[in-house]
Amino acid sequence: MADAGAARQSLPEALRMRYTPEPFLTDRMADALVASDLVVGRAGSSTCAELAAVGVASILVPYPYAGAHQRYNAAYLADGGAAVMVDDAELDADRLVAEAAALRDDDRRRAMGEAARRIGRPDAARELAIELLRLADERGRGAVA
């Protein structure tokens, strides 16, 4: 965290105000996502769901030591046009700068955000509950499941 703070201080003042290094956002994550133009992060299920719910473009770097689920999550968003996926082993400062520079285009980021929103299923829990109640009702009436 100290390195991030020092890096921020070395930026020109006009840029410095745009960056706030934080170790964890916890209860401020939603606000940070809504305010973001671009998110760089891992590809856990909660992160990917939040990106889709908010509709923000992202550069996703799947964590390589937790099975393949983050790779599948990132690929799903990338294949849908909502994210760019970079393998952990391929991520260095030059690659990150290049990927972020390619996403400076407002129209491209906007299109990626819209793609993320289309992928999102904000009513998923409600839809699942309705389907489970429907199945329970059918079983209660003697239907074969």
Task: Please tag this protein with its features.
Rossmann fold, mainly alpha, 56% helix, three-stranded parallel β-sheet, 145 residues
Description:
This protein is mainly α. The protein has one domain (37-140): Glycogen Phosphorylase B (Rossmann fold, 3-Layer(aba) Sandwich). Helices cover 56% and strands 8% of the residues. The protein contains 8 helices and 3 strands, in the order H-H-H-E-H-E-H-E-H-H-H. It has helices at 2-9, 13-16, 29-35, 45-54, 69-79, 93-102, 106-119, 124-140, and strands at residues 38-41, 57-60, 83-85. The chain has a 3-stranded parallel beta sheet with strand order 1-2-3. Helix 4 crosses helix 7. The longest helix is centred in the last third of the chain and has 17 residues, at 124-140. The mean pLDDT is 92.
